[in-house]
Amino acid sequence: MTRTHKRKTDKGLVPPEAMLDAVRRVVEHGVGLRKVAKDRGISKSTLQRYVSNYRQNKQCSMSPNYFHSQIFTNQQERLLVDYLKTASKMFHGLTTKQTRHLAFEMASRNSLGMPSTWEENKLAGKEWLTGFLKRNPTLSLRSPEATSLARSTAFNRHTVGEFFDLLESQILKTKVTGARIFNLDESGLTTVQKVPKVISEKGVKQVGQITSRERGELITVCGIVSASGVALPPVMVFPRKNYRDIFLTGAPEGTIGLAAESGWMNSDLFVSVMRHVVNTTNSSKQNPIIITMDNHESHLSMAALEMAKENGVHIITLPPHTSHKTQPLDRTVYGPLKAFFNDEANSYMMRNPGKTITIYQMGQLIDAAWLKAATPSNIISGFKVTGIWPFNRNVFGDEEFLPSSVIDRPQSNAPSQKDVNNAPGQQDAQNAPSQQDAQNAPGQQNAQIAPSLEDMEAAGPSEVPHDEGGELSHTREDKRLPKGSRKKRIQQGKEKGKNYGCNLNSGNEKNSTGVRKSRAKKARKSRKQLIKKKAQKPEEHESSSSENEEPVLLDTDEDSPIHSEDDDENEIHLGPVNFKDISSESYVLVEFVAEKSTNLAYYVAKILTIGDETDIQVDFLRKSQKVLNKFVYPAVSDRHPVDLDDIKAVLPSPVARGTTSRTKGGIVFSVNFGKLDVR
Known about the structure:
This protein has 679 residues and is of the alpha+beta class. The protein has 4 domains: 16-56, Arc Repressor Mutant, subunit A (Orthogonal Bundle), CATH 1.10.10; 72-144 and 440-480, no CATH class; 155-195 and 211-386, Nucleotidyltransferase, domain 5; 565-668. It contains 22 helices and 16 strands.
């Protein structure tokens, strides 16, 4: 069968209005058929056929019936088109074979006439798919970009909303403008460029283009740009153990050069980056700035955060796996930067035959590309499309959140979203828009009913416009949009050295994000519930003992290990701690509420410095798994500020310390922690 048909005659090109007028002149005005056919340029036999049909039925069609073999009506094909578009926007697009299989299922479940080959192969034909794509030019066969499940589902309305809440609170608190809002991010460039397309002989199977070497060396470029369109001098990390000034030959003016064996940014080098930011922006507590960046571990070193705190730098980290949407540099700067760099590297290879690109030429190549990519228009556009500045929390439409709707869960007879968010332990449970919001998204209603059109049946035949296909019959086995299965929720405690916060505020106030307040509120509520339960237990015991005919006898032998008097003497008692009872170098017991739970957990900590009741700097220890009541310092120092309300007991001085190289880091307390969950 010919897929591209070329018309060879003019048959069937007479407009329906002209054909109807010619037929009426013959039937109603009595003009001869040959004369009318000659005057109007219509075939005599064709006019004769329409005249006969008109005499039998005056409502007959005046155009050729080219759709007698069409399987789906125009309405049905539009529904199928909407389904394919929505599935693609959800990153679950259908291949050509899957689309053919979907068309066969749709036709069979709706009892539509189809060719016999469809039924034999259980698949729609290739010719149908070709014609379907021609009839719907808004569809095309594309090569999608591989996107991880974490990235597609992490970008949801709840997570992005929390980020904008943090950003808005910091903007209102610091009262900064676009000139004091910055974005920081790294990107890698190698000494081997990506070759461009070149003109070559047609029909040649293999076309080559010269590159510097087989495998290149990585140079990290750290860009810092402001929402006003200003680009600070970048920072370049070279893959060397020791830095040399010759590395920056030809680099952009003011560029800072660093060296690391891997060529990547690390926590030690990021201190120099933070110092570079402070020096170039003149930031201070009186003239603060806001920096948005991803939460890579190299950005969260204690030294860099302390430097940011001392110089009025407020750091807001982007939600994980969302930088492809919320990072201004990724959106509008680094794409052009890599394209311009490849062009410059290719031009260098053409101008210098036989020479390779090393790290000593990277400075001049990056300089030419950076000046073209980091333009004010590109930078301002990056902040605008991410909604950071001008501040716009509604910059992302419903279609951009469609990939995260795969993990949505239906909520029948559920409380409102506001009540759910305010419930204890539920702040992190709703990570995606509700099912009702997803169904109200543009294109979502038509896309969900594509295969069997069940919702059209519920609306009634009179409410649904049909083409010449008539009504449809439906089944309950619908082909729905992709939906993830329910996953088991695993309760996990606080990881060692893990920071769960998204806003790393470095101002004087420790609780600007509200994270610590919400946890403290949960802890107070949990303590009240525990107190109520303890108060009810004696009453329940008395009532139960009075109802039983025989008393319950307890074993009171002296050898019974149930209880010990020494345990009572050394048992720790929880309660409010006075501010005067604590001092630096003393050990305390700090209370936490586990994430997504109301269970209480306790950590032993050593007080380092005391500011006020809301600024007590402590160093947390970890409980040993082998020795009872022994605690050790973690490999990575875990220092954080706590409130006085979180401290529940002051521990006595350690009674023993290790003296050998294996045990000298251990600290032992002569107290009985009882059933407390000490970690």
